UniProtKB/TrEMBL annotation:
A Pfam family: IspD
The entry's keywords: Nucleotidyltransferase, Transferase
One MF term in the entry's GO annotations: 2-C-methyl-D-erythritol 4-phosphate cytidylyltransferase activity
Chain segments annotated as transmembrane: none
PROSITE patterns: ISPD (PS01295)
Descriptive protein name: NTP transferase domain-containing protein
GO BP terms, alphabetized: isoprenoid biosynthetic process
InterPro entries reported for this sequence: IspD/TarI, IspD/TarI_cytidylyltransf_bact, ISPD_synthase_CS, Nucleotide-diphossugar_trans
Length: 226
């Protein structure tokens, strides 16, 4: 019996925000991290991964010139984002819609551009699970919560969500199409609302999000340990 041909797996890398909490003179994703901008690390992680067939970078309008050069360097496509994270995700899905509808793309991962240290192993775990349903990398909740008065069942459900998150492309597109006014901060929350099963995979402590100046210093330190 011949297998149905598989579609492509595409990674969307979000850099549509301003990154103002960093207090820098430019978007935090354009700050230098060991010789290249933060966002270049994120794009490269997916562009160089064998399970990823294409990368779509979503950028803030003010940064499109510099982001275009980064996208070109790694063979990624670039699209302008919206005013919020969900708007940027919708802009990406709109760009991918024809290829998703034709079946050329069957799996989509969505990643915070401000998580430059995502590892090949984590991308593999998420890409593999995303073919079968929603997927979310999670780290255990911090120890403080273990000492709280929460009952174990509630505590056991807590965790720190990371990206990349993803799922089957048609499910993801339909979930956003039908979400109405809902605006969630996590990609998989759209899938959950649409009734698509979401499973957790192990996140990674090193997959930090660069938001404040100490995060950038920590990213430098983590890179030095690689
Ligand atoms: C996972 C996440 O919610 C996706 O938007 C986000 O990365 C969480 O980041 P936070 O800085 O830990 O809130």
């Amino acid at each position: 019996m011949s297998k149905a041909p598989r579609g492509q797996t595409v990674a969307v890398v979000l850099a549509g925000g301003r990154g103002t909490r960093m207090g820098a003179d430019r978007n935090k994703v354009l700050l230098e991290l060991d010789g290249r901008p933060v966002i270049a690390w994120s794009v490269a992680a997916f562009a160089e991964h064998p399970a990823i067939d294409g990368v779509l970078l979503v950028g803030h309008r003010d940064d499109l010139d510099v982001l275009q050069a980064i996208a070109d360097e790694y063979g990624a496509a670039l699209v302008a984002g919206g005013a919020s994270r969900p708007d940027s995700e919708r802009a990406a899905l709109a760009q991918l819609r024809p290829a998703i509808e034709s079946g050329a793309i069957d799996t989509v991962l969505i990643h915070d551009g401000a998580r430059p240290l995502v590892s090949p192993d984590l991308i593999s775990r998420v890409a593999d699970a995303a073919r079968r349903g929603g997927v979310l990398p999670v780290l255990p909740a911090p120890p403080l919560l273990e000492r709280s008065t929460m009952q174990p069942p509630a505590a056991a459900r807590l965790g720190r969500a990371q990206t990349p998150q993803g799922g089957p492309a048609t499910d993801l597109m339909a979930a956003y199409d039908n979400a109405g006014e809902y605006a969630g901060t996590d990609t998989v929350s759209y899938l959950e609302r649409a009734g698509v099963p979401v499973r957790a995979v192990d996140g990674e402590e090193s997959n930090i999000k660069v938001t404040y100046p100490p995060d950038l210093r920590r990213a430098h330190a983590l890179l030095a340990q690689r």
